[in-house]
Immunoglobulin V-set domain-containing protein
Amino acid sequence: CRRPSAEPIAKQASLLIFWNSPTTAQVTIEAQPTNISEGNDVLLLVHNLPKNPAAYIWYKGQILDLHHYITAYTVDTERIIFGSAYSGRERVYSNASLLIQSVNQKDAGSYTVQIIKQGDRTEGVTGHFTLYGVGVTSTLHTQDGQAWTVPVSLSALCPMFGFWHLVQDTHRGDKLQQIRIPFLPPDPADTCCTGRTV
């Protein structure tokens, strides 16, 4: 009588272990567009959503409580529920993404989507977007100490023959603007400073 070798069984077991470890993509949130200005819309797009989710719950910030609860979407009933942090400008979609319309300074920051899986298992992921333009000003200083506050985000500023050139990064393309300040002498040796205040 011949005994079966343990070697083929060990190879099969190791092969099963090797093939039994699938990699799952991590859920992420992408803000589209990534940089926005006041009054524009932002879509918080959820990537790598798990299969067969039961519901999605969106929160402002990273604290998952009723005070930060914006909205929820139940997949099987397609029902949308609004929370205490709902402003009327948010819209949740069936793919778990959240649209925030006409954003303002209070909207900037982080958002968390909690994904409720079948069987009451939950998974939370936090996304972040930055709002530009609201409350961001640049202060222009002259040599004699005068200052003007300009409601733009400045990348560069310098006097050129009596003109101030503002290069404004609008995140939709650069724009070059000229502002004429009448009491400056047309002297290219003038210096200037830039500053940002929020």
Summary: The chain is about 5% helix and 45% strand. The domain at 26-132 is CATH 2.60.40.10 (Immunoglobulin-like).
